[in-house]
Amino acid sequence: MQKRELIRNYNRSTVLEIMRRKKVVFRAELSRETGLSIPTIMKITDGFIQHGLAVGAGRGESSGGKPPELLEIVPQSRLFIGMDISGTKLKCIVMDLCGDIVYQKSCYRRDLPPHFDTDTIIAYIESTIEESGVCRDRITGIGLSVPGIVEASNGTVITSIDYGWKNKDLRTPLEQRFNLPIFIENSSRTMAIGEKWFGKGEKTDNFALITVGHGIGGAFIINGEIYDGFYRMSGEVGHMRIDPEGPLCKCGKRGCLETFASGSAIKTQAMALVESNPQSAILTLAGNDKSKIDSDLVFKAAAMGDELARSIIDNVVNYLAIGLENLISILDFKLIVLSGYVVKGNDEFVKRVKNQINNTRQLYYGEKPIEIKVSALGEEAAVIGAATIPLRSWVSSVE
């Protein structure tokens, strides 16, 4: 009996997922795609109509018999909250069943009270729901994207350097306040989930999402799911050692990838090197104020032909390509999706990284090119991924 119920649940969730993606569909089309009989499809879809998830949407053209009825998903029949606290901004969205954003809100962290805690998160979610004007009864789950190491099974943040949290239970207070399923996940993983469902990873079940921003992080989608690793610490690509004699990293090791190829590494290198190169356009663009140097200015100076800036970017291209080559050699990904402010708008930089990887690989592997793409979701990937987690959970368990 239990096995039969599992099969029924699987069939329902499969049908709902097709309807969710296509939005408007014929029952016969559902039968063809799932392999289920028309009577089974009718029973499942009639249940969806009864529960307000779908409605009839007119009839199609007849091919000789009775015109077939179109079914349409009701996008706002279920709603999902996503919140991202991993960047300089707090972001919160209300997402519908089809993945469309119904309402979104954001603010800079610096504009919030200095003591940022669970109460701040709860208040921000509350204000988002209130301002959106959506029906609370339709909200089905909440996902939270957090920087740091997260134990998703119990909603605990093992450690978050950004917030100074250690073994912090985020799930329990949110469950108590909202009485809904709560999902806590690491920000790189939420970004990968967002890309898998709605971005550049939508058509593949295996890819790596690598974030190149202030630091370097990553997450791996393998066989359509996040790969966790034994301790759920997979994806720490930024702490792959490239040079054991290199700069000291915040993790305590020397020569990690993010000490060479992150936004903070570009800034650190430029600030040190302009001391002996005061004529550099980097310093000019910064108004002769070293403290205002950042990676964006270095890229601008390189585009102007500044030799110092170009040498810094050359090194970043080289080290990032080496790090990604190492990753590809181990896990054999064909697709790498890049995100973060270092790659945003820097198409030539991304092209150079891709070319170095493929030129190096060709020497040994022959013509087996790697695709390097920039995230389609950009800075919204984490918050979209956060809302996608409860959406996925609900779709897979729909009754």
Protein model, in words:
The chain is an alpha/beta fold and 399 residues long. The chain folds into 3 domains: 2-73, Orthogonal Bundle (Arc Repressor Mutant, subunit A); 77-197 and 380-397, ATPase, nucleotide binding domain (Nucleotidyltransferase, domain 5, 2-Layer Sandwich); 203-375, Nucleotidyltransferase, domain 5 (2-Layer Sandwich), CATH 3.30.420. The chain is built from 13 helices and 16 strands. Strands 6-5-4-7-11 form a 5-stranded mixed sheet, with helices on both faces. Strands 14-13-12-15-16 form a 5-stranded mixed sheet, sandwiched between helices. Helix 6 (187-198) packs across helix 13 (381-397), helix 8 packs antiparallel against helix 11 (307-331) and helix 11 (307-331) crosses helix 12. The longest helix has 25 residues, at 307-331. It is globular and about 80 Å long. The model has no long low-confidence stretch (mean pLDDT 91).
Q: How many beta-strand segments?
A: 16
Number of domains: 3
Net shape: globular
Straight-line distance between termini: 15 Å
Structural class, from secondary structure content?
A: alpha/beta
Radius of gyration: 24 Å
CATH superfamily of the largest domain: ATPase, nucleotide binding domain
Number of helices: 13
User: What top-tier CATH class of the largest domain fits best?
Assistant: Alpha Beta
Low-confidence stretches: none
Give the rounded overall mean pLDDT: 91
CATH T-level fold name of the largest domain: Nucleotidyltransferase, domain 5
Quickly give the CATH architecture of the largest domain. Answer: 2-Layer Sandwich
Major pleated sheet: 5 strands, mixed
- What is the strand content? 15-25%
- Binned, the helix content reads 40-55%
Order of helices and strands: HEHHEEEEEHEEEEHEHEEEHHHHHEHEH
Strand order of the largest sheet: 6-5-4-7-11
